[in-house]
Amino acid sequence: MICPACDSNSPSTGSPERFSTHQTPSNDPAAPKFTSLETFDPKNLKLPLHLCPSLPLGCRQSFERCRRAALLAYDGFKNLTEIHSLRYKAMCPPPNPNNLARPSVYSFSRAYLHSLSVDHLLNWPVLRANVVTIAHPPKIPAEILSFTVDQRAYEAYLVGFERVLTCYVNGAYWEYMRAKDAVEDVIAKANMNVVDRRMWRHFWTARFLVENESWEEDLKNMVLPSWDEIVEELDTVIWERVEGAVTLDSLVRAEREVVGVDKNDEDEYGVEGYEIYDFMLDEDVMDAG
Fold this sequence. Notes:
Region (Disordered): 1-31
Radius of gyration: 23 Å
Helix content: 40-55%
Number of strands: 2
Number of helices: 8
Low-confidence stretches: 1-19, 22-26, 260-273
Order of helices and strands: HHHEHHHEHH
Shape: elongated
Mean pLDDT: 78
Largest sheet: 2 strands, parallel
Number of domains: 1
């Protein structure tokens, strides 16, 4: 069954067993993938005052439930983007899998240095096409960076992320989909004149649904790269932003070859021995059902 977010022609009739996703190509692997985080405006979800007198009480109540469900679903989406943004740090196993942003209190642990190095890479000022400058920003000295990557740790992170995504799609997001159907149903049965119905339809389709479709489209891009893909992404960023990146790039690749899992040894490696990530999230946001 395809999630209604991916098939606009199919009405939502049951809980989504699978959530179809796709990934939009990007020239910059480290660039933010979710533009709706900057463009979404919850004010556009409010019912305009001029529509309140023309809508029956039951319609207003149903819409308010839908609006709250949409905001709750958006909060869950933001939580997912925060976890997704930690993918480079998840390549190194931290002592505390639930807190990738601060992986260790020990300043010189491998996890801490890897996390700090990722921050250096992602915070490097990338030149945009519409930015005029007289000089390129200086590249990062390779000596201040230290990367440790482990395929099994990253795969444990993938498992944890998939579990949270499934919980969200079958929880808060599905409640929002059901609330939208409820609004459509109650409006269709409401006693409204042609003018009032036309004004409502304009707000509902051109404002409310459009505003939410921005983050729903980003939700379909909620795809994590495979191990080989993320190592290639990291290599690309290093080549672009690090001075003397040949040595550092070779180091990361050598580490991958040592830790990489051979197809004949999948039973020996896998994610066994690594704690599956159990992300600490608001249960009301991630599982509204």
